[in-house]
Design goal:
By secondary structure, the protein is mainly α. It has 3 helices and no strands. It has one domain.
Amino acid sequence: MENTILIEITNQKALGILHELEELKLIKVLKRNTNPAKTKLSDKYRGSISKELAEELNEHIKQMRNEWNNI
């Protein structure tokens, strides 16, 4: 019986459990350390903060830049 599935490890403890299952010859790990497709940071973090907070942060950055330029 050969069924192949792809899983994403979200906790390091799960990786340890998988290795234990492999040692017991219950599963076989086919690939290790495969990197998912690269996503742009803008796509990854889009929507993580509210529009209002983003505007406040932009205003704060502008103020800090002005203060730095006035030194």
